[in-house]
Amino acid sequence: PQQVRFALMGAFDETNVIRDGSDLWIWYSSTNTADHLTLPPAFTLPDAAATAKAPITPADAAGHILGELDDTTEITVDGTAEVAGRAAYELVVGPRDDRSLIEDVRIAVDADTSMPLRFEINGRDGGDPAFEVGFTSVTFSEPSPDVFRFNPPDGATVTERNLFEFMNFDKGPMLTDPPEVHGEGWTSVLVAEGVTVPESDDTGLLDALLSAGTRVEGSYGAGTMYETALVSVLWLDDGTLPAGAVRRDLLEET
User: Fold this and answer.
1) Is the pTM higher than 0.85?
2) Burial of 83 (0-12, 13-18, 19+ CB in 10 A)
């Protein structure tokens, strides 16, 4: 937990995130700049990931799904696979209710170690997985400590950052009330009330989000509908926001 390294690869650049004890470095090759943060002793990346429910590895994603199973779920084993050059078998988890947008979740499990090597979520419309995290190569030996030491390249601009200011996520829509869950299992819908738009957004992401939806209206009122392969979101003008991995009609009924 105290030593982690990610290389996030772009088409022509990369971003490196390196944790070595109390030092956290984020380096951007495109600008040759680096952010440096000093972490408190109790801060661990796995804890932060669990709080955000972020699937950093196939095991994280699989653990989250398998920990939420109930009688709305069907589980099967579907043959074998090869992932990162290793033999694996595929565990298939899926909803019994076809109103869910999710066809199934496939977890490739290492035949020797039982470690999840690949995690996929497939939508009902077919095609490539709507979400996938997996290893292209894997080794079970301990990395050298040198892997986690970072020295900024020549000419790099280093900025010392405050952890809590750096992790400030107040740019997005704000909630005035805690959300509620309607329904159960794969067709459950999260309903938030009092979702408001911030007065300003310097990143432009909010404007892009608002323009990406489709205006709709019905007995429930008027608002903006967002539909993807896995998730439907209805942001009503009165601030009500139901969202779920369900078909549009089920969302409108909620």
Assistant:
1) no
2) buried
